[in-house]
Specification:
The chain has 455 residues and is α+β, with helices and mostly antiparallel strands. The protein contains 4 helices and 31 strands. Strand 5 and strand 6 form a beta hairpin. 27% of the residues are buried.
Amino acid sequence: MGIFGALTTAVSGLRANAFSLENISGNIANSQTTAYKRLDTSFQDLVSSAGSAPSAQTAGLVSAQSRSTNDQQGEILAGQSDTSIAIDGDGYFVVQEAVGSIDGQTQFSGFDVYTRRGDFEFDRDGFLVNGAGYYLKGMPVDPVTGNAIGSTPEVVQISDAALPAVATTSIDYRGNLPETPATTSALLDVANVLGAGAGAGTNLDDVQFQNQTTFLEQSISGGSVTTYDGNGTPINVTFRWAKIDDIDTGAADQWRLFYQSDTTTTTATATTWTNTDINYTFNATGNLVTPAGGTSTITGLTVDGQALGNITFRHGTNGLTQMADASGTFDDNGISHDGFATGQLQQVRFGNGGLITATYTNGRTIPIAEIPTVSFSADSQLSRLDGGAFSQTEASGPPQFGTSGAVLGNSLEASNTDIAEEFSKLIITQQAYTANTRIVTTADEMITEALNIVR
């Protein structure tokens, strides 16, 4: 059986090395495939049982099998798209395949598979699909808190619908008022500018058009801010500060805030600047005393007939002060508000950590979804699918959410194939295959010689 055994063994060697060559060929062909995991080849010897004694056993046949390299990461490269992502370390993205369309709506398989290929782009319906046709799944995020909603990922779809306007309800107002304002009069001439209705325990009047020039001379600019009503209509609000005597106690060092409520009127008795009726007082160190807590409310704020309603004014802790300032003007340290105009989708990007955010033309950035990653107890036991995807098997164990790998935005993982290493294996495989063909040739010659003896 020796010659025929050698022939059979050589044929198994040819098969095994052809199998190895197929893996090498596939690895080289996919050296530029995003996140491709090469397949190495393991050889296993099959010991002949022809003899019971160890000295009678022969080397036997050989078989070959693939060995996955799922746990070996490819190089992380800079991506060319804001929706490209990569995992640095352990983990897989959760994806699904599309199986068709019903009434124009994409239908999905409902069966999760897993991939490290992160070259995602938008399709026409706002779904994120990678170059192999797999659709990304993520955890929906509360746009207010930024926290994930639920624990089950969903196929990510981002709508290009306009972001509704948000009406302004509060204004954050910070800055420093000078101890001595740069005005024609240290104090506002209340009786002549605000009218004769100013008496103890009463609110001061507003500024009429006929008194506007004097008012402007005896007050300082308080900055301006563009706010929005519920329809997203911009409303520019301009402020001015005037220093007055307290009409109840006679004490000085009281500031009053006004806003321009009518920018177009020329009627003498029409109101141009509205008095907020809020007294601002400061202590000896320049810190705000009233309104208490640095918060007040402007009632029924209206500019040129456009109503914002009641607006909360927030100054924060020591956000509004009265310190000496040689310029005698208001030092604006920031005026902002919580309203927004209607916005159109401008950009979607994946940030480090896996958070998907959408930026709109109104300046708002809204969190959309969080990309989860999963790991497996035995990566090498996953079943390979087309397009660099994997499905779980009984041997791999179930997916476990939360991994040590970090999701990187604007990045892609390259193939883990090393061309130089594959060519080295190619040379070795070729030589081994050639050597096995020599065994076949030699066995054939020996059989021929044996047949010649019979003749």
